[in-house]
TrEMBL record:
Annotated family: Belongs to the class-I pyridoxal-phosphate-dependent aminotransferase family.
InterPro entries named among the record's database cross-references: Aminotransferase_I/II_large, Asp_trans, NHTrfase_class1_PyrdxlP-BS, PyrdxlP-dep_Trfase, PyrdxlP-dep_Trfase_major, PyrdxlP-dep_Trfase_small
Named cofactor requirement(s): pyridoxal 5'-phosphate
Protein name in the entry: Aspartate aminotransferase
EC id: 2.6.1.1
Organism of this sequence: Camelina sativa
Pfam families from the UniProt entry: Aminotran_1_2
Amino acid sequence: MAMAMMIRNAAASRRAMTPISGDFGGGLRSMSSWWKSVEPAPKDPILGVTEAFLADPSPDKVNVGVGAYRDDNGKPVVLDCVREAERRLAGSTFMEYLPMGGSAKMVDLTLKLAYGDDSEFIKDKRIAAIQTLSGTGACRLFADFQKRFCPGSQIYIPVPTWSNHHNIWRDAEVPQKTYHYYHPETKGLDFSALMDDVKNAPDGSFFLLHACAHNPTGVDPTEEQWREISQLFKAKSHFAFFDMAYQGFASGDPARDAKSIRIFLEDGHHIGISQSYAKNMGLYGQRVGCLSVLCEDAKQAVSVKSQLQQLARPMYSNPPLHGAQLVSTILEDPELKSLWLKEVKVMADRIIGMRTTLRESLEKLGSPLSWEHVTKQIGMFCYSGLTPEQVDRLTSEYHIYMTRNGRISMAGVTTGNVGYLANAIHEVTKSS
Ligand code: PLA
């Protein structure tokens, strides 16, 4: 042991004095060129917009890029239920590691939101679930799980989708296929093309579904359409993985927004779900979420959970504590939970109100285009139909920041900026 250390130390001091070369198969390189071949990564299409917004000194600037809720003064919101939970937790000296699967209490309370308070699957312990690093972490862990246990499988992803879905399944090395979702002409759901793609996919395929408030389009299937999708999935033995990042943001009621999931459960599917508290509890930076997989029986659930933990262990070992404590404090207290439900509704309603104002403002300006979709779409986003060039003009001429696919985060629209935004949109679209 001591000898090995001496040899290592000697080697280290030699390295410090003489420029070391490494052989990478293509000849010798000096130490200074270890990362020579590393090119700058392309900017993230969503978080890159926030970076550009922050760098803009203009007092007029508006950020409708990232889906982060703002109050009507454009300020980030800490929900009252969260403030109260913080107050109750203040002084807590519990700083221990959570288990690999995170807080069991938080996970149990979270499953009820998705599967229902009285879910038989929860009672029968058929759900393998662990706390994750918010919704992104849940998706990534599932993708890694899919790769490990169904190595030859692919994932079908809607067109369009949250841009990070592509990165997640790419980095998990799961090949991606796409399915039709949005119809640009009608600015609605391309239901028949979606059903064709579901039908034509090989039996037993994995599909990624947005449970509600589809990002970026704000277009969801109707309840009846969900039933048809579920039936077809059944006939094809497909696996449905639901990403539910906006539970409560579609209708203002988390239970109603879980309808798609409940339909699949009624039909006997064994599904997977990613849940996130970033948006509906405003816990963006706390990174608290949950991945669950409904299994055949309790025994299988134990195995699947142990494997999910095994995936988490070398990645981040165990998830962060504080956000999980906040969620548990809120959801286990009936009073705090009902305060939360009220606050979710307030956020959803403010967004719905801004949709109406934005549409009316554009119509009052005499826009020759139809803006009906602004009020028809639901959730945090409006898929405006603006072209990348029009978005570029909004940014360069009006300091309005949004993703180049024309997605407007309605959560960033306020009474104070909606007129400015409508006017700018009118200016860049009136001649089209
Ligand atoms: N799934 C979907 C569909 C999302 O839109 C987002 C976040 C997530 C998962 C992940 O959220 P979480 O990890 O924070 O829980 N989408 C945001 C932010 C709000 C982002 O891109 O990360 C968006 O602006 O699209």
